[in-house]
Amino acid sequence: MGASAARKTRSQISASLQGQGSSGAPGPRIAGGRRKPGPAPELATNAYKAADVPVTIGELWTSRQRQMHPIHYTVSYRASFKPELPDYFIRRFLSEQSSAMVLDPFGGRGTTTLQSNLNGFSAIHNDLSPIAQFLGRSRRRIPDLGELSHRLDAIELSSKRSSITDQAFRRLEPFFHEKTIHEIQNLREMHLNNPDDSALSYIALTALSRLHGHSDGFFSVYSFPQISIMPDAQRRNNQKRGLVPEYKAIKERILKKMKRDLSQPLHPNFNAAAAGNRYLSCDATNLDGVPTGSVDLIVTSPPFLDKVDYKKDNWMRAWFLGVEDGMDELPLAIFARLDQWKDFMREAIREFGRVLRPGGHGVIEVGEVQSGDQLIFLEREMAEMLPLDVEGGRVMAREICINQQEFTKLANCWKVTNNTRGTNTNRCLVIRKEA
After folding, report:
1. Helical (H) or strand (E) element with 187
2. Is the pTM of this model over 0.85?
3. What is the pLDDT of residues 406-432, one digit of tens each?
4. Dihedral angle computed from the Cα positions of residues 375, 378, 381 and 387, in that order, rounded to the nearest 10 degrees
5. Which residues contact 327 (CB under 8 A, 6 or more apart)?
6. Are 215 and 300 in contact, with CB atoms under 8 Å apart?
7. CA–CA distance from 393 to each of 307, 352, 390, 429 (Å)?
8. Could you give all domains of the chain from N- to C-terminal order, each with its CATH number?
9. Cα–Cα distance, 250 to 188 (Å, whole number)
10. Smaller CB count within 10 Å for the chain: N or C?
11. Cα dihedral angle (344, 349, 350, 353), rounded to 10 degrees?
């Protein structure tokens, strides 16, 4: 692997396993977005008949929409798994009465860390992306709704025009009314000047989630909620739909969203647990600063989707957070071949084993690749790498868990048939560190 291939996080990159094998023949293709053909239950079972790893197949956790705490859904984020997944393994492997440390080496929007805190455990959120870092840190302390409402009410956003540059204004003009742009910029400046203000950080997080979308609850004219489309594309959409951005006051929309996200009580120990969180920007194969044998549970999903343009898809969020210039420096890595992905994952699992305590578990959620008519199961590819000798013990493959689900509303939009495509399953390799 090249140097860039060693530094990668789930939110920064998505690995493309398309390309040529070492012989020059076409290599396996990744089931990008989990929307290409995947295994039926009986095929998944047959695929493991020769594997020396126990396999559990079934609906291990609920597939219903938005059943977990609403703060999980504050921000839409591509390639994030449902919070039911980490919750299932946290409850399975960690005792409610014990203190424990959870790690997500590919932290993304922080689903594993957030669910750990909701269950009363501290966590380590690792991601090189400055956007993912903000998503994690902004919920390290969540003030109550009364404090947030009071803080938001005290912010003056509309009494003056902002200091936004002409270039930034022109980029935002297809999305927002002029007054809305100035309000967004005023809040942005206030947040960037007060990064340690937890109430303001949570307000900024909520604003980030409202920047663009397809309903009146967003600040923008009709747009996409998950990705920031480019200004020229938004102009074309506006022309096609006959739309002109109307003024939308941002404070009332922030407050409405905060009320919805905080409509349920947090775990009584949430803020205490979250205060023990750590936020790292490390190579996933070299988790510098995480001591050997200090982690009780890992729940993560490494990059395995087709390549996406992370900078382009997140340009507006990066602008709002003041990190857009640094996006060019993100160390991207594209896996051209399956063996490259396997080389990376072998080193990542070795590092996972180092930081796990003896008896600790890791859960790695992946997809499947397709080469012609053959399906290649990535969880099995990882299982066949094991055992691995690591510092302080040995990493063993304990189990493969395949969660089958009835389809959700989003999947139905893509006209995907139940239990015939990759979107229907979460495929997890469970590892264990033995002394």
Report:
1. helix 178-193
2. no
3. 544 444 433 334 333 334 468 999 999
4. -150
5. 130, 310, 311, 314, 315, 318
6. no
7. 35, 12, 5, 19
8. 3-129+268-434 (3.40.50.150), 145-261 (no CATH)
9. 12
10. C
11. 160
Q: 90, 102 in Cβ contact below 8 A?
A: yes
Residue 356 carries which side chain, given as an amino acid letter? L
Query: Residue 69 carries which side chain, given as an amino acid letter?
Result: H
Nearest to 433 by CA among 283, 300, 292: 292
Residue 326's pLDDT band (cuts 50, 70, 90)? confident
Dihedral over alpha carbons 192, 76, 426, 83 (to 10 degrees): 70
Q: Is 145 helix (H, G, I), strand (E, B) or coil?
A: helix
Question: What's 313's DSSP letter?
Answer: H
Rounded to whole angstroms, the Cα distance separating 277 from 120 reads 11
**CB 402, CB 426: distance < 8 Å:** yes
- What is the DSSP code string of 326-355? GGGG-------SHHHHHHHHHHHHHHHHHH
Per-residue pLDDT of 98-157, as tens digits, reads 789 999 999 988 999 999 999 999 999 999 889 999 999 999 999 999 999 999 999 999
Contacting residues for 205 by C-beta, under 8 A, at least 6 apart: 74, 75, 134, 135, 138, 139
Q: Could you write out the DSSP letters of every residue in 3-70?
A: GGGGS--TTT------SB-TTSSB--EE-GGG-SB---HHHHHHHTTT-SS-EEEE--S--STT-S-G
Q: Look up residue 152 and give its two tokens.
A: 């938001």
Alpha carbon 197 to chain centroid distance? 24
Range 21-40 average pLDDT: 37
**Is the pLDDT score of 399 beyond 50?**
yes
pLDDT at 65: 57
- Residue with token string 């803020």: 271
Measured between alpha carbons, how far is 212 from 224 in angstroms, rounded to an integer? 6
**Amino acid code (one letter) for 112:** T
Compute the average pLDDT of residues 292-305: 90
Q: Which element (helix H / strand E) includes 384?
A: none
Q: Exposure string (b/e) for 364-395, b if CB count within 10 Å is 16 or more? A: bbbbbbbeeeebbbbbbbbbebbebebebbeb
